[in-house]
């Protein structure tokens, strides 16, 4: 076989090896932010508290932010790199219990009928990817009033 033929095979073989190495390095650095679970109570009793949970896996990424929305309106933002990492935005029917809220859960205190709606968690990774994942759930607030106790003969006064 002519010498130039071996030279061409070597170039082709070298190119394939370089591509394989590049792919292996790229796969090693690829990370994927995943939203594992969003827990929103389906029903909550008026004047009680409700815990909204957002569980995610950063898979090596740095967290940029966690945001919560009710019916498309942001009411809670957690950005760990900010000087004040937590921001709360006023929204009717949404009273955030700041002391018991974290990057993974938001506690709403004293929910009202106005608190019913669609709640969405949005998690974003830091630069350079800024990957964002989101999921939602619906919560209905019910006005529960216990039934009055039935009185028997022995419960009546004077008998």
As for the CATH topology of the largest domain, it is: Immunoglobulin-like
- Overall number of strands: 9
Beta strand %: 35-45%
**Main sheet record:** 6 strands, mixed
Mind explaining what this structure looks like?
- There is one protein chain.
- The chain has 159 residues and is an alpha+beta fold.
- It folds into 2 domains: 1-30; 34-142, Immunoglobulins (Immunoglobulin-like).
- Helix content is 17%, strand content 36%.
- The protein contains 1 helix and 9 strands; from the N terminus they run H-E-E-E-E-E-E-E-E-E.
- It has one helix at 3-29, and strands spanning 34-39, 43-45, 50-57, 63-70, 73-78, 86-88, 105-108, 117-125, 132-142.
- The chain has a 6-stranded mixed beta sheet, with no helix packed on it.
- The chain is elongated and about 105 Å long.
- It starts with a helix and ends in a 17-residue tail after the last strand.
List keywords for this structure.
159 residues; alpha+beta; Immunoglobulin-like; 2 domains; 6-stranded mixed sheet; 3-stranded antiparallel sheet; 1 helix; 9 strands; 17% helix; elongated
């Amino acid at each position: 076989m002519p010498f130039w033929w071996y030279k061409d095979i070597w170039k082709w073989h070298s190119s394939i090896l370089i591509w394989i190495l590049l792919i292996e390095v790229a796969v090693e650095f690829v990370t994927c932010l995943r939203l594992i679970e969003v827990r929103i109570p389906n029903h909550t009793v008026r004047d009680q508290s409700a815990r909204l949970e957002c569980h995610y896996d950063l898979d090596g990424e740095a967290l940029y932010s966690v945001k919560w929305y009710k019916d498309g309106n942001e009411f809670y933002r957690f950005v760990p790199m900010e000087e004040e990492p937590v921001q709360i935005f006023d929204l009717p029917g949404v009273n955030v219990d700041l002391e018991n809220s974290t990057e993974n859960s938001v506690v709403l205190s004293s929910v009202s009928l106005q608190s019913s709606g669609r709640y969405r968690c949005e998690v974003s990774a830091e630069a350079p990817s800024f990957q964002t994942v989101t999921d939602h759930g619906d919560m209905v607030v019910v006005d529960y009033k216990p039934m009055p106790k039935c009185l028997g003969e022995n419960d009546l006064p004077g008998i």
